[in-house]
Amino acid sequence: MEVIRIEGGHPITGEVTVEGAKNSALKLMAATILAPGVTTLTNVPNISDVHVMGKVLKKLGATIKVADEHTLVIDTSQVDRWETPYNLVAQMRASTAVLGPLIGRFGKATVAMPGGCNIGDRKIDMHILGLEALGVRFDMEHGDICATVPDGLIGTSVTLEFASVGATENLMMAAVRANGTTTIDNAAREPEIVDLANMLNEMGAKVHGAGTPVINIEGVSELHPVTHEVVGDRIEAGTFIAMAGICGGPVTVKGFEPDHLGLVLKKYEMMGLTIERGNRQVTVSRTQPLRPVDIQTLPFPGFPTDMQAQTMCALSLAEGSCIVTENVFENRFMFASELSRMGGHVVIEGHHAIVHGVDGFSGATVKAPDLRGGAALVMAGLVADGVTTVYDIGHIDRGYERFVEKLQGLGAHVERVDVPKIG
Ligand code: EPZ
After folding, report:
1. Which residues share a beta bridge with 414?
2. Which of 20, 60, 65, 315 is the most exposed place for a label (fewest CB within 10 A)?
3. What pLDDT is attached to residue 57?
4. Is 223's pLDDT higher than 80?
5. How many other CB atoms are there within 10 angstroms of residue 331's CB atom?
């Protein structure tokens, strides 16, 4: 099995360019179901979650050509099935993103109920409630949710209990084919939602207000294939920004919109980083000690939960204590327990983590608990005293393309190593 081994204490400087956003690309791929024909997606990250979504689409009858490493040519004209099997949904919860497009195109879908995952039980009750309001009927059969639209999809008003990214996306992708207009209130506002709405409109949909809490969608009778570029990955960018922050930099991170990390950059400047904003890039450096800053995760434009572990890592090296509050997922502090093996001092109280700054980390063997926690452990290894070995790096490969190579390109002493299985 492969592990990532990091020799701490080496500075990182130079330039790194991030890929297209995982959390947009997966939904854009699902949305191609709505437009029978050949859609080309560019700036697609070459990561395992994209490969899984490709398997889901092929299972439904689509064909996918990898034109170059970051361009997918997806033909959905022959999609003639609407069941998504458990083994694929279990591998990746985002497979449920085909629910809306299948209902929008065929008026039916059978999707395995997503199980929980390390960061929470990942329910889809808001997806189901919202789609039911549009006229979808759900039956549960042997772990699958079977959707039908006995009287067709009818535009309506839906208020989400929580600004759920996935629920907003599934509702949008069904509503584009409904009779009449749908209003989604308390909609998620993430840049990935805007990217999806932009592509749907390029396909002939009429989606207004994406990026605000109220999205209006006028149903249309058909959508046509397009070519669309995936928005830059703000979380991959934020991960390298956090790394540059604890190592000192200067590092220039390219390929994303700095505005998509507004609050993160503000908080990082409060922590003592110097961040120079440019056109689709930032340059990060730090010469002063890290300062503690309280963080609470919230839906966009709040502080992103996907940057929580990386930020906790940095705050663990600040002069003093602070509180990190996780409001989005119910169990997203596993990184803290792994970090304690490296000398971190974080006390968990429910949704709050009291982070006490320590003088430094010591290299250790640790396990990636999830995608972002794994990246944050590699980040801790960059400045740890000695060697850190991170196991379960499959989590990291789900969302970070060429993570090790990019860090090597910045001067980090990091490598992927084959080791015998533990235990
Ligand atoms: C998306 O997950 C992202 N994943 C997550 O990124 C991200 O953390 C999250 O949005 C929040 O920004 C993808 O886009 C593939 P939610 P999603 O629906 O859509 C609860 C990463 O590291 N909820 O906004 O699943 C849910 O359990 C991943 O890249 C319900 O209770 O997030 C969670 O606690 C991790 N019922 C909270 O809401 C529902 O019907 C937010 O979920 C839906 C969600």
Report:
1. 6
2. 65
3. 96
4. yes
5. 15
Decide if pLDDT at 370 tops 80: yes
| 92 or 11, greater pLDDT | 11
Q: Is the pLDDT of residue 335 over 90?
A: yes
pTM of the model: 0.97
37: left (phi > 0), else alpha (psi -120 to 50), else beta? Answer: left
Mean pLDDT of all residues belonging to the chain:
96
| Tens-digit pLDDT profile for residues 250-289 | 999 999 999 999 999 999 999 999 999 999 999 999 999 9
Tell whether the model's pLDDT for residue 331 goes beyond 90. Answer: no
- CA nearest neighbour of 359 among 212, 240, 222, 246: 246
Rounded Cα distance, 4 and 406, in Å: 13
Instruction: Judge whether 127 and 98 are in contact, CB under 8 Å.
Output: no
At residue 229, φ and ψ (nearest 5 deg) are -95, 130
Going by alpha carbons, the residue nearest to atom 43 of ligand 1 is 124
Quick one: which atom of ligand 1 is closest to the CA of 370? 22
Please tell me the distance from the alpha carbon of residue 86 to that of residue 141, in angstroms, as a whole number. 12
* Ligand 1 centroid distance, CA of 159 (Å): 17
Quick check: 348 and 326 in contact, CB under 8 A?
Answer: no
For ligand 1, atom 13, the nearest C-alpha belongs to: 23
d(CA 243, CA 377): 11
Question: DSSP class of residue 117?
Answer: B
Residues ≥6 apart with Cβ < 8 Å to 147: 99, 102, 103, 108, 109, 110, 111, 131, 136, 137, 138
**How sure is the predictor about 423, in pLDDT bands with cuts at 50, 70 and 90?**
low
Enter the DSSP assignment of 5: E
Nearest Cα residue to atom 32 of ligand 1: 165
123 lines ligand 1 (CB under 6 A): yes
pLDDT at 115: 66
Query: Read out DSSP for 177-200?
Result: TSBSEEEEES----HHHHHHHHHH
Q: How far is the CA of 126 from the centre of ligand 1 (A)?
A: 11
Q: What are 64's strand-pairing partners? A: 74
Q: Per-residue DSSP letters for 200-253? A: HHHTT-EEE-BTBSEEEEE--S-----EEEPPB-HHHHHHHHHHHHHH---EEE
CA of 247 to the centre of ligand 1 (A): 30
The per-residue pLDDT for 421 is: 79
